[in-house]
Amino acid sequence: NVHNYHSQSTMAGAFLPAAELTESGRPILKPGEVECSLLSAVDLLSEELPTFPLLKSGLLILTTHRLFWLPPETNNRTNPSSFIPLSAIQNIISNKKSIKSMFHSPRIRFQVSATQDGRIMENGGRNSVAITLVVRGKTDPDSFVGKFWEAWRGRAWEATGSASGSGSALGDAGGSGSGPPLAVRAPV
């Protein structure tokens, strides 16, 4: 059982890319990436993949590019901070309101592309895996879901040219490499 616990502890990294954090424990964002919303006390799991780790009561941070899951304690080595690229998401599954769901913690489900062995990454693979977020905090999951849809539909990661830019005019507007990298364009 001790062995089982240990193998469980290193599991998150086998499925999700690790998130880089600042010394104060905030995610290091990419150029052009903006925080949109956060939820506390969120479990992240996959009911389809029995080997997928259950990440319990972490902080969920939604940005324009990624969905971060940070463990409850900053020094938590068992489940390191990780993220899901929004570009890997194939579908956000709308929750059906039911009597049963009123008595359970709200759940947010979405499908991501993954490799054969369940690794989630940008343009990850041919397989599809459903991920479930269980919201245990007192926050409003509905407004989070609205922002989640917005960020996913907004496809901001394409504009910054991090994905294989599909020749869009937005990708060229970033001025690849010219000028100071920290330049922030004023809102129009």
Summarize the structure.
This protein is of the alpha+beta class and 188 residues long.
- According to CATH, the fold-level topology of the domain at 35-142 and 151-157 is PH-domain like
Total beta-strand segments: 7
CATH-defined architecture of the domain at 35-142 and 151-157:
Roll
CATH class of the domain at 35-142 and 151-157: Mainly Beta
**Average pLDDT, all residues:** 79
Q: How many helical stretches?
A: 6
Task: Report how far the terminal alpha carbons are from each other.
Answer: 58 Å
Unreliable segments (pLDDT under 50, ≥5 consecutive)?
1-9, 162-185
The largest β sheet comes out as: 7 strands, antiparallel
Q: What is the rounded Rg?
A: 17 Å
Helix content, binned percent: 10-25%
What pattern of helices and strands is seen along the backbone? HHEEEEEHEEHHH
Assign an overall shape. globular
Which structural class do the helices and strands define?
alpha+beta
Describe this protein's structure:
- Helix content is 21%, strand content 27%.
- It is an alpha+beta fold and 188 residues long.
- Strands 4-3-2-1-7-6-5 form a 7-stranded antiparallel sheet, covered by helices on one side.
